[in-house]
Write a structure and sequence with these properties.
The protein is of the alpha+beta class. It has 2 domains: about 35-275, Hsp33 domain (3-Layer(bab) Sandwich); about 280-325, CBS domain Like (Alpha-Beta Complex). Helices cover about 30% and strands about 25% of the residues. The strands form 3 sheets. Strands 1, 2, 8, 9, 10 and 11 form a 6-stranded antiparallel sheet that branches. The longest helix is centred in the N-terminal third of the chain and has 20 residues, at about 70-90. The termini are far apart. Bound molecules: zinc ion.
Length: about 325
Amino acid sequence: MDFLKSEIAVDFRKTAADGAGDAEGRSIDMTGWATDDVIQPFMIDATGLHGRYVRLGPQLDAILSRHAMDDASARLLGEFLALAVGLASALKYDGIFTLQVKGDGPVPIMVADVSNDGDMRGYAQIKGAVPSAAAAAGAPVPKLLGAGYLAFTVDFSTSSERYQGIVSLDGATLSDVIDHYFEQSAQFAASAHLACNRDAEGHWRAGALIVQHLPPEGGGGGVALGADDWNRAVTLMKSATEAEMLDPALDPGALLYRLYNEDGVRVFQPKPVRDRCRCSDERMLGALAAISEDEVRSILNDGKVEMTCEFCNTHRSFSFEQIFGRAVGDGMAEE
Ligand SMILES: [Zn+2]
């Protein structure tokens, strides 16, 4: 399967140096840098490999706490959000990055999307009996999602073009699935390491470490790299424990130094991530106006259509008149 047939090449290259990183390797003043709910880009000096560490705290907790969800599903959705933020930040785009899963397990749908401004949202649809977090640990993909696929999409705000990738849900964990996707990619290599759990106070935290390699062919700042160098970078990344990745007292730079200090590691200005849904009255009215009047009539309840945003759980209700600009009875005679 070739997942990367696309009209446009999304640039995985010009990303890590987005921030205020010092190309000369001089020390950077990191005072004032946010350390939580951030994307922390980094570069490994010895190899020139780029990566990012996504660290989610209170903003993630707000998203997961908004839905009544079992711990196993919340934990997987937290990893899913961290992964979406990490992949989105590896892309140079102006628009919306969406990661979604469709499976045949008790959690058949999971969606996360991230804007280029760092607004993130996500939800899981839960339909069956979900195993406990302990029973799902180690193999959440087959136990919760089942068989199916994971897809990611970039919708560019500047054009109608789309970039899409898709991979089947082969693997025990989300990082297995995404690693499998990148193993098949000819354009670049990437690997992810994910964690999500509650802290001592019961608040959700998540982390995603991602390293990526762009071959030098085709320019754009890629680096030549031996397999040993790549394997070493991935092995060091995967040696980060869940406790390290979720520890609010351990600064992102300190964790990266712990992992990569022998090879030299450089961090760049972090980017904040926010819990912010893009739903609005206007968008919901637009969606309703796009379906037939008959259909809207059939779902009227007390003269209103009730709608709940799946992402942020906001309830809204609209009258027929608000949707179509006239009373519900008008125009019925012709039908
Ligand atoms: Zn919403």
